[in-house]
């Protein structure tokens, strides 16, 4: 197998560090394990951020997400841990992670965690991140 799961998040220099610009990523195949039953939990992760000096390299992000496949943790724990790790690696101006967990016992769970860099104020207007969920016919 050419790749293996990894907790190492690689970065590269922001090509436009003087501009606030928004990056949106959708990660539709995230899996981890329920810490109580060991059964798989499935989520779609929506990651939005405004970079400062660094951006995340996508292959390392994919391998990082893969590393959770055999880990047991509650939805709230996983969502906040991923945000903390990304903030530590990137130190973004702004970051929001929305984890939409698929049904378990008749209940959908959504966890949203945010980070704002200390002292950062958006240059032009408030942070407005479009809601792409209306484009997803499977769940709204």
**Shape annotation:** globular
Side by side, the strands of the main sheet go 2-3-5-6
Into which percent range does the helicity of residues fall? Answer: 10-25%
And the CATH topology? GTP Cyclohydrolase I, domain 2
Secondary-structure-derived class: alpha+beta
Number of domains: 1
Average pLDDT taken over every residue: 89
H and E string:
EEEEHHEE
CATH class: Alpha Beta
**What does the largest sheet look like?**
4 strands, antiparallel
The total beta strand count reads 6
What would CATH call the homologous superfamily?
A: GTP cyclohydrolase I, C-terminal domain/NADPH-dependent 7-cyano-7-deazaguanine reductase, N-terminal domain
Low-confidence stretches: 136-140
Radius of gyration, rounded? Answer: 16 Å
**Number of helices, counting only DSSP H or I runs of 4 residues or more:** 2
Q: Which architecture would the CATH scheme give at its second level?
A: 2-Layer Sandwich
Strand-residue fraction? 35-45%
How far is it from the N-terminal to the C-terminal residue, by CA? 36 Å
């Amino acid at each position: 197998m050419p790749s293996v799961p990894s907790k190492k998040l690689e970065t590269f220099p922001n090509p436009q560090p003087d501009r606030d610009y928004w990056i949106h990523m959708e990660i539709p195949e995230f899996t981890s394990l329920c810490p109580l039953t060991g059964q798989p939990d499935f989520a779609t992760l929506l990651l939005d951020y405004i970079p400062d000096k660094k951006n995340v390299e996508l292959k390392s992000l994919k391998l990082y997400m893969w590393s959770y496949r055999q880990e047991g943790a509650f939805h709230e724990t996983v969502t906040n841990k991923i945000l903390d790790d990304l903030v530590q690696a990137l130190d973004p101006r702004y970051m929001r992670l929305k984890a939409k967990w698929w049904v378990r016992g008749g209940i959908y769970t959504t966890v949203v965690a945010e980070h704002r860099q200390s002292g950062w104020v958006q240059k032009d207007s408030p942070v407005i991140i479009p809601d792409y969920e209306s484009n997803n016919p499977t769940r709204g």
